[in-house]
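Hey team,

Filing this mostly as a record. A colleague (T.K.) asked me to run one chain through the structure pipeline before their review meeting, and I want the input and output archived in the tracker in case anyone asks later how it was produced. No errors, nothing strange. Just documentation.

Input sequence:
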Amino acid sequence: MATKKISLKEKLHLKQQEGSALLATNFYNYETLRGIMEAAQETKQPVILQLTKSSIDYMGLQVAVNMAGAALAHYQVEGWLHLDHSDSYELVEACLAAGFDSVMIDASEKPFEENIAISGKVVKLAAKYNANVEAELGYIAKLGQSTETVGFTDPEEARIFVEQTGVDALAVAIGSAHGFYKKEPLLDIERLKEIHAITGAALVLHGGSGIPAASLREAIENGICKINLATEIKNIFILTLHTCFESKEEIDLRKLFPPAITAVKNLVVDKLNTVSRYELKSI
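Output structure:
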């Protein structure tokens, strides 16, 4: 994207070294994108804009890419565009050709060796674009999947996986899940420490929605340098719209949407302050 200063690979490692993290925010339309951009501009913090296949199908690939690029340039925010949770090599290929700075290939539900093979193939493709590649190892419950199932990332497997694939970033399963939590999640920080100690990959925490700030900070202190935020963005946007619909006899979208945009902005400001301005206790 036009406003990026350095590659996302470099930025993630810088964040990891300084004990802070980048917030990776999914956007779904102009309004959620605007809320994210206003938050990043206000806090003067960099941000990763994420798109899933569903959002790309909804907005159209080139339209979504153009929206992200125009927003980063207009708000003068340092940022990158990332493909989140792709299970398709073809989609990865299309997104890289369209100008994405980073892609995630998610073969985490495949056998270990197959995950290595698929992820390694994407790394070779992304090298042509100098793009960041993220993969996932372990079981991080997706929407609709059981959060009771346990499949935490094994540290030794993480070391082998990173060495054999060459991925730049690794989403680790340490107790988080996508969607809402029925009870406060307990992150396995000791496991995270082990993974961080034996792999040089940038470590990613998926399922950032609903995790208390103190837990996020502890994870950052122990190697997490990218935190994904999606569910809370959708939730606050829709809840705010519902309130507007109930309290007003209004059909002008230009009047109904601004409160929801502001709600997204306030949420992201809070998250950016949590992950981007955190400093290690030892500093």
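Quick notes for T.K.: DSSP finds eleven helices and eight strands in the chain. The CA atoms of residues 169 and 202 lie 4 Å apart.
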